What we know:
The structure holds two protein chains of two kinds.
Chain A: H1 2-10, H2 14-20, H3 23-43, H4 52-71, H5 74-98, E1 100-102, E2 105-111, E3 114-116, H6 118-134, H7 139-142, H8 145-164, H9 168-185, H10 189-196, H11 199-209, H12 212-222, H13 233-245, H14 256-259, H15 271-304, H16 308-332, H17 350-368, H18 376-381
Antiparallel strand pairs in A: 1-2, 2-3
Helix pairs in contact in A: 3-4, 3-15, 4-17, 5-6, 5-8, 6-8, 6-9, 6-16, 8-9, 9-16, 13-15, 15-16, 15-17, 16-17
Chain B: H1 2-39, H2 41-52, E1 53-58, E2 65-66, E3 72-84, H3 92-102, H4 107-119, E4 126-129, H5 134-142, E5 150-159, H6 167-170, E6 172-174, H7 178-183, E7 194-197, H8 198-202, H9 204-208, E8 212-218, E9 224-231, E10 239-241, H10 245-255, E11 260-266, E12 272-278, H11 292-300, H12 309-312, H13 322-331, E13 341-343, E14 346-349, E15 352-355, E16 363-365, H14 367-373, H15 376-386, H16 388-397, H17 419-424, H18 431-437, H19 448-460, E17 469-472, E18 475-476, H20 492-507, E19 526-532, H21 539-543, E20 559-566, E21 573-579, H22 585-603, H23 615-622
Parallel strand pairs in B: 2-10
Antiparallel strand pairs in B: 1-8, 2-3, 3-4, 3-5, 6-7, 8-9, 10-17, 11-12, 11-21, 13-16, 14-15, 17-18, 19-20, 20-21
Helix pairs in contact in B: 10-22, 13-15, 13-16, 13-20, 14-20, 15-18
Amino acid sequence: MREGRLWLRTSFGLGNKVLQINWLYVLLLCCLAGVGYAALYSAAGGSAEPYAARHVLRFATGLVMLVGIAMIDIRFIRRLAWPSYFVSLALLVVVMRYGHMGKGAQRWIEFGGLQLQPSELMKISLVLALASWFHRASWERIGNPLFLMPPLLAVLAPVVLIVKQPNLGTAVITAILGGVMFFAAGVRWWKFVLVALPIPFIAQIAYGHLHDYQRARIDTFLNPENDPLGAGYNIIQSKIALGSGGMWGQGYLQGSQGHLDFLPEKQTDFIFTMIGEELGFVGGAAVMVLLGLIVLGGMLVALRCRHQFGRLVALGIATNFFLYVFVNIAMVMGAIPVGGVPLPLVSHGGSAMFTVMIGFGLLMSVDVHRDVEFTQARNALA
Amino acid sequence: MRRDTRHSGIFTRRALLLMGGQVAILGGLAARLYQVQVLDGARYATLARENRVSARLIAPPRGRMLDRFGTVVAGNKLNWRALIVAEQTTDLGATLDSFSRIIPLTDYERARIEREVHRHRRFIPVMVREFLNWDEMAAIEVNAPDLPGIIVDVGTTRMYPFGDQFAHVIGYVAPPTEADVEASPELSLPGIRIGRAGLEKQYDEDLRGRAGAVQVEVNAYGRVIRELERQEGVEGEELGLTIDAKLQQQVLGHLGGESASAVVMDCNNGEVLAMATNPSFDPSLFDSGVSQSQWKAWAEDKHTPLLNRATAGLYAPGSTFKMNVAMAALEAKAITPADTFECPGFYDLGNARFHCWRKGGHGTLNLRGALKNSCDVFFYQVARKVGIDRIASMGHSFGLGTELQIDLPGARAGLIPTREWRESQGHPWNPGDTVVAGIGQGYIQVSPLELATYVARVATGREVVPHLTRKIAGELQSGSDPADWPAMDLTERYLHVVREGMWAVVNEAGGTAPQARLPDQRWQLAGKTGSSQVRRVSREQREGTNFDSSKLPWEQRPHALFVAYAPFDSPRYAVSVVVEHGNAGAAAAAPIARNIMMDTLQRDPGGRDTLPGDQVAMNQVTR
């Protein structure tokens, strides 16, 4: 009865649903986008053009998408999980054959004037598909290795395609994301160990098959000073810029390294470095706190959701965001090899913004529909 | 519901675990950020300053060369040039294509540019084209937006106001080779040149100077934002030569169109006042690279314009060698000045007969008369008496057939044979070899520079060494004072006899070179002729009635030589002249030597830095 009442409440008209959206969380996202605006304004040398103004426009569009997706019933989204997975997989194949080359890799496709990065779409689709698979899986079935085979394949297929693009960073992130989903679904510890054991050997073999530029990236990471004007340049310049920021920074719009163009791609991958240079450790740490709140907020959405699909989706989306943040910040500090991973909602760039906002839309939808009941009929299907 | 609770329990546990992990990782990143920004901050801040400030080398102007009176003989002129910075263009090929539409580049040039861009760091500018004129520069500036990475700047390039007249003395400069750049990286500055020949090579390090540095604030693309500090380079040092440019021109004028060379030297200190060699070449051709066809032309020219005949042309000295033979014999007490020898026109050694140049012979002669008449038979006999080794050792002390240590690369030492030398070649020394050595033929070879040194030493009895630099950076170098040169270990009385003989050659009736007599009564010239055979004259030719070496083809005619000093009573200048295939020394070389000596005596540049009257005009040329 109680459930029925809740169901009624949550399916109450659209206006009510809008009120159900976790606006506090949306506010956090707006803050982050605001940080992005300020940083891009500085990156353009104190001008809204060409980055900051477009950033706001994109974020506004993304916000509309977010609200729209948040309105969609989570059970309907579950029905779309596998179809969206296969569409994403197909797009990955398409991008391999027809995609635009960008920095030596095929990652983009044009979609009605919009640049689309299928690997980003795939990460969300994968979260949905795995969440759907594990939604009503019984404890016993999760223990059955045969039951785990299809989702494992569902992870491996896109990972292999993304490696072939080649985009090693995103492939690793996708694999980790899949692993986290398995973990959250309750797969036993020892099975992870079993899968993890051969990884060093695979890595060794994979290293032999890597493209030169990928190998250079790993080598450079291991010893950036070896080649200060070549591949190690980015990392060294980034560390120098961060270091020159000190505790309080050189002041907004005053960062010398960024403004003298030493900092590569300061409006995209290295935006965090610019923030660190201008606003110091205090500013950088504040942005990290904001990012951490968004991650933990997503995890809290997962924890308070009453159905497994929603929990897994929320956890997956939050983890995906966390991985973005981790890879980007660790990269600019020289803690992991450089990979073209932007800082979500801060870096300049359309495709990443939209996929991230789609993800947060799903997260909001989970939160709005956290108490819904999935019908038995669909349980049987699962 | 139970199942869901169980799910929920596991999920909550694991989600909390993940959250813990995420917080820990973010905390780790924050700690790392603290380390990079705050703990290591100072170090990175220093790096940041270095990053922004880029030190650039500025090529110093190459030191000039002035003649002894301050006339510029090697200077610098402005050179507008287009450079490309690879870092500032995304497509090198496209930029060069656009450039070619304005100023056509040859395939060869493009290949060089691409090779150099590849070799250097991407922020180092590479020369695209030098010596741009105003129109070309304007065209580049107007099209700058289509030429990313192209910059125009001004450097200096070498300028030789006298063209080919000093080419062999001054030498030339050329761009450094890849090996040079590897050995000393400062040579990678665009437009830098290194001396490849002559004084440019000898004094390359002094002339090159030290590269200056300018500290500029740059952005990551190397574009200069502003200049912070400038440390001017040390300009290459100025070289003051011993040469008198005007005299050099006059000497060249006297050589005319012959394949010839002449050296004018200050007898008292070895300063070379003129060193002329004909034909010559344009030294500025090397600055931008010599074309294949030019090389071919030079290589095929039988007059070998690239050869500095004065220092590297080796000739048998002929009769000019006789003073040396005489001194060797006198010092060895093999003869006395009063001893006489008979000249019947020939000298027999075993069954070989050696002729005198005069068919009927000279009759009875003492040393003075033998020098005056250049009697061959006299010196055949004297040479036999004194022996080759003592002739050689006296020759070496006069500077013949030895390394003279002149400050000019490429000088070759001549040769005076000794027994030891001949035996080291696997042959015994024949008495006949000594006989021909007595008249400066056979294996003997000397350069015009050695001849001038020899005459100077005979004239003054001082062991002067020829040299070409008087001042480096305004500092007078040692050697300009006659007292810097030690007296030779020779008996003055004997030297006097030899000098008397040389005087008689020119000034006494019956001497072999009356053509060399000076028209001005104030001065008297002492000299000696020489003809050096380049091929053996057969007995049939010699005994045939109408043998005349001047009828031989040019390459087979003897070289004509003349050595001289003046004034006779207080020697100041020594001159040597070699006219290749000029036939007879008296006819071809003596008048040239006389004219040169006349001009030299009139200018009288020895020991002076200024010429009265000339001074103002010279200064105007200099500045």
